[in-house]
Amino acid sequence: MISRADLGRLALRLRHRFGGIEAINRRLLLLDRVDDVLRAFGAAVDAGTVLHGPLVVHNVQGDYGNLRIGAGVHLGRLIVLDLAAPVEIEAGCTISMGSTILTHSDAGESPVSARYPRIVAPARIGAGSYLGANVTVLAGCHIGREAVVAAGAVVTEPVPDGAVVAGVPARPVS
């Protein structure tokens, strides 16, 4: 007899076969926990993680191979991960609900595209760091180990190890 878990895995594989990775992305919007689905489709996810859904994953090229999540990471609900370039979330991080991690910026065919050309750069969230609710991390802005980014901040440049930043744009606070 086929188990419920096996049936669920089979259903996901069929979704992927007939709808590609976009079908899996849509499924991530409906799940309470997304750990197993990310693992099943190429993400490196260590043990002891708590990865809540819904999760929005953007710019996926075939699978989640651009995503690496360390042990003991906690992702809140409604996180947006842009996988145009690799995203690494190191061990022990907490990324609170509504946060966005970008790896690209592209003005497309807009008249400002000559002044603001396409940027694609990886993102790394350092071990033990904390991102409050609704933080936005722009492409190429790494977060250092054990850094704290206050809720609502927009990170426009790298954050050093142990720093505490807040605001728009994010700046060091005492």
Describe what this molecule looks like in 3D.
The protein is α/β, with parallel strands linked by helices and 174 residues long. It has one domain: Hexapeptide repeat proteins (UDP N-Acetylglucosamine Acyltransferase, domain 1, 3 Solenoid). It is built from two helices and 18 strands. It has helices at residues 4-28, 35-40, and strands at residues 44-45, 50-51, 55-58, 67-69, 74-75, 79-82, 87-89, 94-95, 100-101, 104-105, 119-120, 123-125, 130-131, 136-137, 148-149, 154-155, 164-166, 171-172. A seven-stranded mixed sheet has the order 2-5-8-13-15-17-18, with no helix packed on it. A hairpin with a 4-residue loop joins strand 17 and strand 18 (171-172). It is globular, with a radius of gyration of 17 Å.
Quick overview of this protein structure:
The chain has 174 residues and is α/β, with parallel strands linked by helices.
CATH-assigned homologous superfamily: Hexapeptide repeat proteins
List the quaternary state of the chains: single chain
Tell me the fraction of residues in β-strands, as a range: 25-35%
Largest sheet: 7 strands, mixed
Helix and strand element order: HHEEEEEEEEEEEEEEEEEE
Structural class: alpha/beta
Instruction: Estimate nothing, just give the exact number of structural domains.
Output: 1
The CATH topology assignment is: UDP N-Acetylglucosamine Acyltransferase, domain 1
CATH hierarchy, class: Mainly Beta
Given the structure, what is the number of helices? 2
Distance between the termini: 61 Å
Apparent shape: globular
Order of strands in the sheet with most strands: 2-5-8-13-15-17-18
- Rg over alpha carbons: 17 Å
Going by CATH, the architecture would be: 3 Solenoid
Name the helicity range: 10-25%
Mean pLDDT: 93
- Please provide the count of β strands: 18
Low-confidence stretches: none
